[in-house]
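Researcher: I'd like a candidate sequence for this fold, 204 residues long. If you have to choose between options at a position, lean toward the conservative one.
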């Protein structure tokens, strides 16, 4: 029947998270009175649509923050390649290394099939990176978050974050959180009724 069809397509354990609120007890599975398979399916569909809405919103945030960081860093240094200046970024920690981050950027540039990236790759030497406005296009929200957080100059971080109406500490916290949400959405995992290990700092 209909339930068997969806169970075979979606999977028992994947759907199981959506029928938990309808259970009176989990072992054995005993459902509350008047619970239907349609109720469970509606929650699943809601979650899928929520992921799409979140991805759409996060894409806009990702592009806006990335470009604001890139513009302000280039203006601050009066340089097209500020990402090649280690002194602009924090010292290495367990979670951050400028040189590892720069190498990862170079790897992403080499893997990119964007036409404008290919133009710069042929123009620059193998071990060099194109200007930041080109490199920024291969930076996702997680990568942007780390580069922003580790930009050493706090007033510059604030100059960037205040364009979004928050201070730099709230921006760092916000970017970390939506990086987690974005990765959850991208892997088609449940976002409804989920607890995240990192929550966003609320603005005062």
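Model: Candidate sequence:
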């Amino acid at each position: 029947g209909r339930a068997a069809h969806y169970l075979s397509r979606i999977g028992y354990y994947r759907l199981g998270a959506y029928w938990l609120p309808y259970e009176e007890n989990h072992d054995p599975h005993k459902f509350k009175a008047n619970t239907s398979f349609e109720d469970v399916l509606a929650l699943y569909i809601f979650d899928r649509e929520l992921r799409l809405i979140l991805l759409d919103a996060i894409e806009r945030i990702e592009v806006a923050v990335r470009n604001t960081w890139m513009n302000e860093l280039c203006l601050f240094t009066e340089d097209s390649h500020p990402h090649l200046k280690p002194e602009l970024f924090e010292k290495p920690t367990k979670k951050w290394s400028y040189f590892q981050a720069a190498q990862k950027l170079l790897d992403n540039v080499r893997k990119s099939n964007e036409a404008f990236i290919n133009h710069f790759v042929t123009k620059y030497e193998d071990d060099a990176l194109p200007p930041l406005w080109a490199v920024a296009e291969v930076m996702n929200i997680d990568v942007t978050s780390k580069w922003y957080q580790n930009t050493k100059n706090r007033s510059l971080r604030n100059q960037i974050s205040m364009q979004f109406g928050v201070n730099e500490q709230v921006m760092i916290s916000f970017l970390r959180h939506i990086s987690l949400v974005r990765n959850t959405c991208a892997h088609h995992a449940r976002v409804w009724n989920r607890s995240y290990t990192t929550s966003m700092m609320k603005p005062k």
